[in-house]
Write a structure and sequence with these properties.
4-stranded antiparallel sheet, alpha+beta, C8orf32 fold, 297 residues
Length: 297
């Protein structure tokens, strides 16, 4: 047995020296040790290079705790990867049990999804684990490359038309807020699938809350402002860090449904308000989990 093992190792080393193959080097390292290496690809163009209180970028993609698992899932989405495989370390004895628990918690996964750029949002996510400790995350994106190119072109056109260099961030956001509302109506019947994404308000003039929030999030990121989407059990809107303070923007509620469908209404009640003010207006649809969206406490 020892002779056979020695022969295999010699062959692998010879191939490594002869061809200088990086993947063979990784395989050899894994073969000779108990360490499992993860293949970390580069992030895509919509990666957010910052952390939040609830989830942070994983540094080594080896989770040693429940929080470590959340960070790996967030990082997979934030990097824009379609698939990613990592391994549970032996020190984390409840790792696979926690993976199973998280994979079944659709609300938790949806909340993590809100922290990443809309273009990296999933429409479907699957987390598969094996008894060996291998865990694979598979992501089906909400937006196709064609969708992204189309939206980016439309957003850039609006920014060129509506935004000037002499505006401060507040003025820029007010312009974008008003532009979206003035060109969009709430899709009461919810018959248009595009209304659930940024495509609806940008090209069809219709949206539900997720469509408003996605388009606003794309604009916020284009303007270089730290942001995420906030969700309650019944609603979704935006949060943005501006002038050192986390504030809410809810385009849906600033574009109210009127009895006369021909009347277009624009309000600013939910534009850059703090949490205290937000909840003075409404405590039902805007009742969010502050243990998740901790910046808004």
């Amino acid at each position: 047995m020892r002779k056979t093992l020695s022969l295999i190792i010699c062959i692998l080393i010879s191939l490594l020296v002869l061809f200088n193959i990086d993947t063979l080097s990784d395989y050899l390292a894994n073969f000779l040790t108990d360490e499992k290496r993860v293949n970390v690809a580069s992030p895509n163009n919509y990666y957010k290079n910052y952390d939040f209180k609830f989830v942070q970028e994983s540094r080594d993609y080896v989770p040693y705790s429940y929080q470590g698992l959340l960070n790996v899932i967030y990082s997979t989405l934030n990097n824009g990867w379609d698939t990613f495989t990592f391994y549970c370390p032996s020190e984390y004895t409840d790792c696979l049990k926690d993976v199973s628990k998280i994979s079944k918690d659709t609300t938790l996964l949806s909340n993590i999804n809100n922290y990443v750029h809309p273009y990296n949002n999933y429409s479907k996510i699957g987390i598969i684990s094996s008894t060996t400790g291998e865990v694979t995350i598979n992501v089906t994106k909400l937006y196709s490359d064609k969708d992204i190119d189309k939206i980016n072109s439309g957003v850039d056109e609006i920014l060129t038309k509506e935004i000037t260099n002499d505006m401060d961030d507040d003025d820029k956001l007010l312009k974008i807020h008003d532009y979206i509302i003035n060109n969009t109506r709430y899709d009461i019947n919810k018959v248009n699938d595009a209304s659930y994404t940024a495509l609806g308000p940008l090209f069809n003039g219709t949206a539900v809350c997720s469509g408003y929030a996605d388009l606003m999030a794309i604009f916020l990121s284009k303007l270089g402002l730290k942001n995420y989407k906030v969700a309650s059990n019944t609603h979704v809107w935006n949060a943005v860090l501006i002038n050192g303070e986390w504030l809410h923007i809810d385009l849906t509620w600033d574009d109210p449904i009127t009895k006369d469908s021909e009347v277009d209404t624009l309000q600013h009640d939910f534009f850059l308000v703090n949490t205290e003010k937000l909840l003075e207006f409404d405590t039902k649809d805007h009742k969010f989990d502050s243990t998740i969206y901790q910046e808004l406490r």
